[in-house]
Amino acid sequence: MDITFEGIGNQKLIANFENCNLDGVRFVSCDLTQCIPPKSKNHVYVEQVSARVKNALTKIDDDPNLSDDDRKVLVRSLRKLKPVEQYIFNTAYMKKIYGDVFVERFFSSLDCNMA
User: Fold this and answer.
1) With contact defined as beta carbons under 8 Å apart, do 32 and 49 qualify?
2) Strand, helix or coil at 76?
3) Distance (Å, rounded) from C-alpha 95 to C-alpha 85?
4) Contact at 8 Å (CB) between 26 and 88?
């Protein structure tokens, strides 16, 4: 089941996710700076997502290790995050859907450490 937290105009979301497992959760137009992210090591809180995405999209074209299909999926996944400033990713859930290699490549392209 997918859950979406949707704000209006980058509205502040005030929530305590400390004991939550955010499987299938999306954040749209939310300012997450007031949230308490989950304690689980499977969750990664990332700031400056928009700037990271812009940078990642320029690097992906030059990556000789990406197949065309992998590049398409990665670009599509990153573009969805273009307007976002903060995000909480569930790496275990992402790995279940996309696989370990994709998830490592995704976070690497965002210059994020998964742990």
Assistant:
1) no
2) helix
3) 23
4) no
Residue reference for tokens 């704000």: 7
Alpha-helical runs (H) found in 18-90: 49-60, 68-79
Tens of pLDDT along the chain (115 residues) come to: 589 999 888 889 999 999 999 998 999 889 999 999 999 999 999 999 999 999 999 888 777 778 888 889 899 999 999 989 999 999 999 999 999 989 999 999 999 876 5
Helix/strand/coil for 78? helix
Residue type, 58: T
Say if residue 74 is exposed, middle or buried (CB neighbours under 10 Å; 0-12, 13-18, 19+).
Answer: buried
Tell me the C-alpha distance between 78 and 52, whole Å: 9
Q: Measured between alpha carbons, how far is 30 from 13 in angstroms, rounded to an integer?
A: 6
- Residue closest to 108 by CA, chosen among 56, 46, 49, 70: 56
Beta bridge pairs of residue 13: none
Q: Are 60 and 98 in contact (CB under 8 A)?
A: no
